UniProtKB/TrEMBL annotation, chains A, B:
Reactions accelerated catalytically: 4-amino-4-deoxychorismate = 4-aminobenzoate + pyruvate + H(+)
Pathway: Cofactor biosynthesis; tetrahydrofolate biosynthesis; 4-aminobenzoate from chorismate: step 2/2
Cofactor list: pyridoxal 5'-phosphate
Alphabetical list of InterPro entries matching this protein: Aminodeoxychorismate_lyase_IV, Aminotrans_IV, Aminotrans_IV_CS, Aminotransferase-like, BCAT-like_C, BCAT-like_N, Class-IV_PLP-Dep_Aminotrnsfr
EC numbers for this chain: 4.1.3.38
Organism of origin: Sulfuricaulis limicola
Gene Ontology CC terms: cytosol
Biological process annotations from GO: 4-aminobenzoate biosynthetic process; folic acid biosynthetic process
Class of enzymatic activity (EC top level): lyase
Physiological role: Involved in the biosynthesis of p-aminobenzoate (PABA), a precursor of tetrahydrofolate. Converts 4-amino-4-deoxychorismate into 4-aminobenzoate (PABA) and pyruvate.
Record-linked PROSITE patterns: AA_TRANSFER_CLASS_4
Pfam families attached to this UniProt entry: Aminotran_4 (PF01063)
Name the record gives this protein: Aminodeoxychorismate lyase
Family, per entry: Belongs to the class-IV pyridoxal-phosphate-dependent aminotransferase family.
Amino acid sequence: MKILINGEPGESISVLDRGFQYGDGVFETLAVANGQPLLWDRHMRRFFHGAMRLGIQAPAEGLLRREAEQVCRGASRGVLKIMLTRGVSGRGYAPGPEAAPTRTVGLLPWPDYPATYRTDGVNVQFCHTLITRHNILAGLKHLNRLEQILARMELKDGCAEGLMQDETGHVIEGTMTNLFVVSRGTLLTPDLKSSGVTGVMRGLVLERAPALSIDCRVTGIKRENILDADEVFLTNSLIGVWPVRRIDSREYPAGTVTRQIQEVMRDATVAD
Amino acid sequence: MKILINGEPGESISVLDRGFQYGDGVFETLAVANGQPLLWDRHMRRFFHGAMRLGIQAPAEGLLRREAEQVCRGASRGVLKIMLTRGVSGRGYAPGPEAAPTRTVGLLPWPDYPATYRTDGVNVQFCHTLITRHNILAGLKHLNRLEQILARMELKDGCAEGLMQDETGHVIEGTMTNLFVVSRGTLLTPDLKSSGVTGVMRGLVLERAPALSIDCRVTGIKRENILDADEVFLTNSLIGVWPVRRIDSREYPAGTVTRQIQEVMRDATVAD
């Protein structure tokens, strides 16, 4: 583990940092292969957009890139986590004039998911914990993650991921993944205008699917649409594409669309 | 400023603490007068309830009390802030088995609100930032505070507080206060079942109002109900009771009910 805090190697931050006090910041997690973070430009676009939406002054991209290269150097694979908070200020929600942003750039261990998750697929469940709608933070990868944590804590043994619904019954995403379903030959993924995180891998799937002659639509998806679907898969920047083998008692094949998408995303993911 | 981190004087926490990584924790802020935190039992009830809802192992109350007395000793007035996070664990929303909670107990400076806020009242505005509904975290004072921060950042010069509505047009609370309105002799405060923080001072007002022969009701309150109201006031543990003098262009008198409530809350608040 190697972490730079505002450019200096470190392991601790001020207890008064607004990241700790209020979750006042954004983050990115990138897959690292052969010393290089993958999909850098896409992650940076979301990162700078998030910082702008929260009104936090972002560092220059070149600075982040140099720090990322410094921590990733020599790593055959790993996870690059970049965080930006509004920094240290006095108590109270209003940021003080003295607050200067805190950035952390760290290389963390590669998660040890079984290789079979990608080849054979995963078991998934529906979570009871709802994801809120009309969220001003929709789309952003921000530091307020309690809904996802509570949903994640529901997972039964043997379940690799849980799906989160909003109070209208729309399924939005997994706790740490975006959701895709294949229904009568069309690839569908939930609309994230009012909740959720617009995943970098999700964006890339949506861009590349048309070249495979796969019809693709961003839309509202309910639980019954998922249970009726022909194929289901999950994405994020670390896992790439996981076929879903089972949701509760419904079983799915790892179908041809999922395999095509896995194949075309190979350059953007880290091999197991 | 005097802070104990897991019982030891300190100023920094691990960058891997889940409080910093995800806002995974709860907090309390108590007024301190003459070396003593006010309304300790009520704050502790909410604190332990919040920890339980998040599944975080809380420390013994006696230990917190001793630490609180240690940091508050000799302070004529101040703010006691107690935080509890799920502690340090590896990356990912699932808490690792190694996570041991982090507690911080700190004395922070008394906020320098003008004394006229309590005597003459404050100017308030409606915020555009919505507060989400159907929030599994409703009622808790948790560390995911981005909605409140974004709302707070909207405040115009001269506005001491902003009111937050949900997407159905119900006004839930201020960014850092609970809301009361007096309408045809009845005291009303918003229902917090689906959003908001159940303030300790709010609870005490609801308990004490009946003894003053003031009818009291927890209910849905919309913007028009507030603009039609006879009196409006705001509460929290630090400010006590602030009359609202103006919301946008509507002016209010600091009416008799507000004055009665201020008077009966005097023992529970810190004098300016």
